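Here we describe the complex-level prediction in full. Unlike the single-chain runs in Section 2.1, the two entities below were treated as one system.
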Amino acid sequence: MAQPDPAPSADAIHLNAISKRYGRTLALDAVSFNVRDQELFALLGPNGAGKTTLLHILCTILRPDSGTALIDGIDVAKNPLEARQRLGIVFQEPSLDDRLTVRENLELHGLVYGVPRKLRRQRIEEMLALVELSDWASKPVRALSSGMKRRLEIARALIHDSRILLLDEPTVGLDAQTRDRIWAYLRRLRAERDITVLVTTHYIEEVEDCDRVCIIDSGKVLALDTPEALKRAHGQSLVRLTPTAEADLEAITARYQDRLTARKGNELTLVSDDAFITAFLAEFGTRITALKVEVPSLETVFLTLTGRELRDRAAGAREQTLAFGKRGGEHTR
Amino acid sequence: MNGGAMHWRRRLMVQLGGLYGLWLREVMRAFRDTGQLIGGVSRPILWVLILGIGLNPYFRGEVYGAVTFVVPFTYLQFIFPAVIALNIMFTSVQSAVSVIWDREFGFLREVLVSPLSRTTVLLAKVLGGTTVALLHGCLVLVLARFADIPITWADLPKALGLMALLAFALTSLGVVIANRIRSFQGFGIFSNAVILPLYFTSSSIFPLDPALSRAQTRVVYPDWLVTLVEWNPLTYAVDALRGALIHYNQFDPLLGIGIIVTACVVLFSVALIDFYRT
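The structure predicted for the assembly as a whole is:
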């Protein structure tokens, strides 16, 4: 990692050697990075990587065991109330009052954050329009779908003068259409208002348009750069190919043992480069039925950095422990 | 407003605005909960109209022909202040259930990451519960004429003040219980296990004879019951309320006020310490 910034107040978020431990599991291991002002910054990692823990430390729900976190130059441990005034937060689980109406929830948020009445009214209408919920303003939150609730929470986080918006997995559990809409709102918002956005996600395709991506796994920062730079530095191109017969498959496997990354049925995935493709086609060109070249993507970056796929992993013991910790670690049931 | 410390007055305004917002939320939620309202109306009617009127004739002391003691009130008048206390008690403790709701359904998080201090958040919650409980107490007051209790303009503020303090103490108690018990079912059982015994042993539905000395009281009633009644703080609260409404005190009225205020301070402090710890 780079050295801590000498003038941290220039950054929207500044993290220096944050560590957090739940029992024997180290959820965050000396995490340091800066989020620049007005950046769209993504924190990418599998479930249990420590993303939510990090966000909870930033919004002062959790205290780090060591290290400092600054929001807009304010130390969150020393001055939590002022740090929170600058944050807009959307949690992974909904945190709305579902007995109140949409507008009442927003009103309450405005009151709690000390937004003057006139500005409050104006912001509520603006934000309802932004997330396309104006028609639902007087409906109780109970009546909303989960996608609408998420949109409402984004609107709520923007009622006060939040300079930094933290979103914890804003698109998880939503259908593809709603996910696209949420990203569209975020993009529109950044065009209209001076705001820094930090978003965590485990959907790789979503982070392609972010300014910078931080890949985190097992509580450690593995890489941090623009998506293009990450692909250049860590991406590999791959070929997926289907041999004609069993014998061909065996021959190819034996010949390119060191390049083989996956085998699914009779489809092989090999690490590729220009020279490899030429050589391969010369040798096996007649013995395959299909060949597909994949250019470097963040998916392959992640694979290279962590040695595993991002999705389709069941929650392991570690994730369960962390999820338990996130819920507050209470032994009640 | 970029960087630097906020002015203390601006900070105070934020806390007060938040206090108002969260208080308003508690009150609005309570009024949207029809179940709670029905309970608040039916409970006093049950106690005052059915139990009170039903037992009224037996309160003259002439049970089986032997006159034991006579208090200068009808039974209905006697239990009326206690029914107010009961209604406040149920509503206060029940409103603390929302502490569990908020935790379970995530709203607590929204508040914990807001610029409000935890003291403000808790105070808003307790004041909200207090307001609702006070209103439920007033529902009983409406029945005063059925119990032949003339309420003067001088008595009313005294009674309302005592009711508010009692509601504050009991809501804090509810929050303390809710912080220790984390499931809805557990809370229901526990709150009933606290409310009803507290109520029954608070000399609310039967009087300890004021004409008898301490030693004589212990002869008429079993020893353990007298002890329970004397140790129950609610006894003194109900007694103070009785003083305000029917001008009848078994104990020093200042003692009642003192005990309620102490309970407010102690229970709220305990709830606050719990809240900062979680």
